[in-house]
Design brief:
Elements: E1 3-10, E2 13-25, E3 28-33, E4 50-54, E5 66-68, H1 78-88, H2 93-100, H3 104-111, H4 119-128, H5 133-137, H6 151-160, H7 168-171, H8 179-194, H9 198-218, H10 224-244, H11 248-263, H12 270-284, H13 288-301, H14 310-329, H15 333-350, E6 354-356, E7 359-361, H16 363-376, H17 380-387, H18 398-414, H19 418-431, H20 440-452, H21 458-467
Antiparallel strand pairs: 1-2, 2-3, 3-4, 4-5, 6-7
Helix pairs in contact: 2-3, 2-4, 6-9, 8-9, 8-10, 9-10, 10-11, 10-12, 11-12, 12-13, 12-14, 13-14, 14-15, 14-16, 15-16, 16-17, 16-18, 17-18, 18-19, 18-20, 19-20, 20-21
Length: 471
Amino acid sequence: MRARQFVVSRRGGRVSVPVRWEAWTEGVAVGRAAPADRPSGWEQVGGQGAASVVDGGSGTLGTPTEMVVEMDNEPLSLGARVEHKRTKAGMKRGELAAKAGISVHTVESLEQGRRVPTVPLLQKVAAALDTTVAWLLAKPDTLPSADPNAEGILAIRRALTPVDDDLVDELEPVEPLTLRDAERTADYLWGCYWSGRFEQLARLLPTAIPQIRATVRAVPVAEQPAAAEALARVLQAAGDCMVHLAQPDLAWMALSEAVKAANSGTDELLAAALRISRSWQLLVQGRFPEAQRVALTAARGIEPAGDAPLGQLTAYGLLTVTAATAAARAELPGDTEELLAVAGETAGRVGYERSEHQSVFGPAKVVMLKTDCAVVLENYDTALDIARTLPREAPLPLATRARHLADVALCQTRTGQGKDALTTLLTMEDMAPDWLPYQSLPKQVVAELVDQQRQVDRPLLELAGRLGVEV
């Protein structure tokens, strides 16, 4: 990642802060200031250590002009934050409405808390206010957690369990989206997922799920299959997010509905690809043979023959490599090796990292999962050798690359390379601070490093504190 100096607003003054690129989405580069370089008296936008850098460009990394950093006295509610940004920019409601392409009534309703915003609406308002959706949503709600009674979890549970499917329009009236906005919402939620922003994703799901259900019911018959596929994708994002938030029942519920929605669409590969998530759910529950069977059965159902299209190759490769990871955890090295070979051959036919059905598959993805399988089988030196073949600039999602670094850190720890392991962990934290709190493997590695040291050095001690690892 590149480090640069950026101008940061601070209580009426301006200071320069070194920032590293962390992610790039929706026309906004997200950077992170190194802790030692943070000036006192300012907070960063978007979570611990994160700050948004507004580029104003056209969707490729450019030279940002200003880091958006809000102060201690920033407003708390979504409506108040919109009003705060608008007045700070010297805009009247009509001017914001014109810039965002919405009505003045919508701006007024949003600021007064009388309107539940859709994801597309949040995107328009954030762009018009030169900020991010993450900042607009940064409010002190009860954050999602492993507690099934936490406010955020209850809201998602309510969204996944409508009162009565036949009477939902009367009992739970929700404004539908256009098909295009439903598809954009699915894209945005998956962007949150792959950048590790589970808290933001969980805050958006309780609104997005019923809205897209309503869209499926409201759109013309010709658009219903596409709307059903958008619903399936949103529900899959909900299910995968719930796995990270330790809510297996909600994860299972969301994916079951996703499969039903996908069967109402026209994408023949979508229902099969959803089995990647189902297999992962089983894997997390320790049901390794079942996880392998689910992925293999789905893979056989779409096995390519001859000159198969890239979409089919990608979905087949993802299912095959998913089955391999389950086989490794079931302690079946022969199956693991055979499935990885098939996945590698399929990735070679694809030839590059291709995004398909909410995931990425290609030669680099296979390298990462080969590393993971070697780690599971406790072949740590082999795993490190495999990891060294991963191209540094492989276009992989942030969460995927961070998970790979956790595997590398574990291998380094188990092979007596404690200093290298700590460096890897700190790199991973720097790369994905939002993703890290929900992961158990990095905490396990930190605990092992602590046990290996008679006297814990300061960087490791501080990292253990940030992750909640007892020293």
